[in-house]
Design a protein that fits this description.
Layout: H1 5-17, E1 23-30, E2 33-41, E3 58-59, H2 64-79, H3 105-109, H4 121-125, H5 129-138, H6 153-167, H7 171-180, E4 189-190, H8 195-198, E5 206-207, E6 212-213, H9 221-225, E7 235-237, H10 239-250, H11 263-269, E8 286-287, E9 298-302, E10 306-311, E11 316-322, H12 332-345
Antiparallel strand pairs: 1-2, 1-11, 3-7, 4-7, 5-6, 8-9, 9-10, 10-11
Length: about 350
């Protein structure tokens, strides 16, 4: 493998000095494991003597869409339980006769379903989880399915509900049984985290209600509204667990026990699924900004400052975990760091 650990460390150290994030944890590896990793900065600027550690727990934010929803939908597809191209209304009674009934799982996975672009769950449906579910599944579409690629959190929320319907299990139980436990991802779970685990968690944004930074409780409001478990966000994880997940994606033989999804699901997901529509998408994954088709690097980000990349062509993966949301919601500074990190990790 070719990568430059010294330049990666210098890049991420500079991000700490520039207050892009308080700290970061990173790793680069292949199907055999981690080949380089490191940490920089502190867990919490209010505690400058507590460094970021390799086992720091991070609010994964939208990486939940991959770790819980994408993996679970893949398991149901590989089981033959789910046809990606069958309109949802033909087999899911909750959406039959409603606009969502004309949408397919593939369209949700490629963000081409035309569902509303913003969650706005409390404003539209209140705080009762059953009312929210009913409202989301019965909502009017934003535009006709298949017309445009528009990223929306609702796609993952709906697919999480679908996975629960088809499996008869809650999303946290399904993801745990089919993916996290078989892969030995012992520190990956939905929050809120117990106090002893929350103490190891990187804090995110300041909570106006408590005047403290969120720590062990999901930053995403929809996840908190729904009790911590939903398809949008809510998972907490560590770099080693993400390494195990990405290793398996590169080579399914790395798992000694059966995992819900396999090589067929990974191959299909890490390939163009949106035709001539832009921006290009696979199934939940998308080509890494600034990368070439030949490099075949796919990525998914989390709003809190998390990200993971994978390239089947290069046989490599990379993870960068930060708690940039501690300082700001501004995306641009971290976007620059992410792109530079990806270039160094996939040289």
């Amino acid at each position: 493998m070719t990568y430059d650990s010294d330049r990666i460390e210098a890049l991420l150290d500079e991000g700490v000095r520039d207050k892009v994030y308080p700290g970061a944890v990173w790793a680069v590896g292949d199907a055999t494991g981690i080949h380089a990793q490191g940490t920089t900065g502190v867990l919490d600027p209010d505690e400058p003597d507590v460094p970021m550690r390799s086992d720091t727990v991070f609010d994964a934010a939208s990486l939940t869409k991959i770790l819980a929803v994408w993996s679970s939908i893949g398991a149901l597809w590989e089981d033959g339980t789910l046809d990606l191209d069958q309109p949802l209304g033909t087999f899911w009674p909750e959406v039959t006769g409603h606009p969502l009934g004309a949408v397919t799982a593939r369209q949700l996975l490629t963000h081409t379903a035309g569902v509303p672009l913003r969650a706005q769950l409390k404003n539209l449906y209140g705080t009762n989880p059953d009312d929210i579910r009913r409202g989301v599944l019965h909502e009017q579409l934003h535009r006709p399915p298949g017309e445009a690629v528009e990223y929306t959190d609702r796609a993952a929320l709906i697919l999480g509900y679908l996975a629960e319907h088809l499996s008869g299990k809650r999303l946290d139980q399904l993801a745990g049984e089919r993916t996290w436990q078989p892969l030995g991802m012992r520190c990956t779970r939905f929050g809120p985290l117990p106090d002893e685990t929350a103490a190891l968690c990187a804090p995110t944004e300041l909570d106006q209600d408590t005047d403290t930074h969120l720590k062990g409780t999901a930053h995403d409001f929809s996840a908190r509204l729904l009790g911590g478990v939903c398809g949008i966000a809510g998972v907490f994880t560590i770099v080693d667990d993400l390494g195990a997940f990405l290793r398996y994606m590169l080579d399914a033989s790395t798992s000694l026990v059966p995992v819900g999804f396999g090589t067929a699901w990974t191959s299909r997901s890490l390939s163009l699924q949106t035709g001539k529509l832009q921006p290009a998408r696979g199934l939940f994954w998308h080509p890494a900004p600034g990368s070439t088709t030949e490099q075949n690097i796919w990525v998914h980000y989390g709003f809190t400052g998390t990200g993971m990349w994978i390239s089947p062509t290069r046989g490599r993966w990379a993870v960068l975990l930060t708690n940039k949301l501690y300082y700001t919601r501004d995306r641009e500074p971290l976007a620059d760091v992410r792109n530079a990190f990806r270039e160094l990790a996939f040289r």
